[in-house]
Amino acid sequence: MEKLARIVVLGGGIEGLSLLEYLRWHGFENVTLLDENEAWDGDKNLAARVILGPEVFKSLAEYDVVFKSPGIRLSKLGMVKGVLRSTTEFFFERKKGLVIGVTGTKGKGTTSTLIYNMLLEGGLDVYLGGNIGYSPLSFVDQLTEKSVTVLEMSSFQLQDMKMSPNVSVMLNVTEDHLDFHADVEEYRAAKRAIFEFQNEGDLAILNADYPVLKEFYGDLGKGKKVWVSMKGAEANGHPTEWEVSGSSLVGGMGAWIEWKNEVEGVIYVQIDGTKEEIVQVSDVALLGKYMLENVLPAIFVARHLGMANEIIAKVLREFKGLPHRLELVRELKGRKFYNDSFSTGPVTSVAACSAFREPIALIAGGSDKGLQYDEWAAALWENPAVRVVVLIGQIAPQLEESLKKAAAVSPEHPAMRIFHASAFEEAIRLAYDGIPDGGVVLLSPASASFGMFKNYKERGERFRAIVGRMV
């Protein structure tokens, strides 16, 4: 890319601003930033021309290079005569060392952070970036051939990619972001890029418990396939249903749990034919059995890169999760408040409810991402712990309709009560008043935050603040 090239960066978020900083430090002077938000409040003293407004993406023909930030639809762009680039691929062209990419509908931030913490504890030169909130361009100049970069990768970042990480992890694929992607198929197809361009020396790590991942196999590229599973392994008398190209869960490499009962078990890893015990399930600090899906690939990656079992186990005993993911906020008069604001879809909301045996008052609702909620509602009615559901936001009527449909076929649930709240503080108070001592107030919205809040972080922080001042 020529230093005198006319460069435009679309989007003034974390990715766009990090790219501007990188270009400035590397001597690119003819740079423009475009953002649709007229109220954009970023640094106006950037070493770039800044143009704001709802139609700014329509006039791109004058630029030699166009950098599109993740989350901006191609359909929004006017004629592009120059080269269209993505910020993520720009990093891949300049990176040094090993890159580990993690994707999935949910859990990728937790898995990425676990991998990072394990490698850091093991003394590696490791960096964390991507969708988790840190652009890798902010540290790309610090990388050496011995460095390891861990990237949380969303469908937005993967959709335009023509390069894949050296180690790629696919946690799960349900449905999400249907307000951006045309349909579920497009959303799933975007995820494939994390494997599609791998070489034979690379690793592709998948969860064998998700049948939908079988659909990906034909397009997964040349990387060696590694399976993880929550359901046990062939050596324990629980054969995985998925064997492809002679690589079964135990016959090749992988990580799995051998269960003693519903709550007790042991996590094992197998690399090069050697089965190793890593840690007891009860020693994992993360709350919620479903969180073990995120733990397994992290363990395998760390062990594959030479981290000692003791280091891996130490991190698992100490790491209690990221903010806004089943985060215990406070206990008040016998009731515990949990912030799961990051739950922006129905699958993770159901999983959060399954983490508790105590009576639950669930706060759910927000803006519409085009998702379906009938299965969410059915799962709530099948969970006797869910006693109260408080609905908020634009999508509240749709959630109530799904709950009523589920009630018609699940009439034996012990008296679930449904409330509506017009304000967030009212919702929290209704939930608190609706359950007895020993119960749980759970914010797990199953939808996006827009309309009431800027993002899930603001929603979670507001929850913390309101709960913190309750008496």
Walk me through this protein's architecture:
With 471 residues, this protein is an alpha/beta fold. The chain folds into 3 domains: 7-87, Rossmann fold; 95-318, Mur-like, catalytic domain (UDP-N-acetylmuramoyl-L-alanine:D-glutamate ligase); 327-468, Mur ligase, C-terminal domain (Protein-Tyrosine Phosphatase, Chain A, Alpha-Beta Complex), CATH 3.90.190.20. Helices cover 27% and strands 22% of the residues. The protein has 13 helices and 20 strands. A 9-stranded mixed beta sheet has the order 7-8-6-9-10-11-12-13-14, covered by helices on one side. A 6-stranded mixed beta sheet has the order 15-16-20-17-18-19, sandwiched between helices. Strand 15 (327-332) and strand 16 (335-339) form a beta hairpin. Helix 9 (346-353) runs parallel beside helix 10. It starts with 6 loop residues before the first strand and ends with a helix.
Share of helical residues: 25-40%
Counting DSSP E segments of at least 2 residues, the number of strands comes to: 20
Gross geometry: globular
Q: Report low-confidence residues grouped into runs of 5 or more.
A: 234-251
Q: Let me know the CATH homologous superfamily of the largest domain.
A: Mur-like, catalytic domain
* Strand residue content: 15-25%
Number of helices: 13
CATH architectural grouping of the largest domain: 3-Layer(aba) Sandwich
The overall pLDDT average reads 88
Total domain count: 3
- Characterize the largest beta sheet: strand count, sense, and whether it forms a barrel: 9 strands, mixed
Task: Briefly note the structural class of the backbone.
Answer: alpha/beta
Strand order of the largest sheet: 7-8-6-9-10-11-12-13-14
Could you tell me the CATH topology label of the largest domain.
Answer: UDP-N-acetylmuramoyl-L-alanine:D-glutamate ligase
* Ends apart, CA distance between termini: 60 Å
What is the CATH domain class of the largest domain?
Alpha Beta
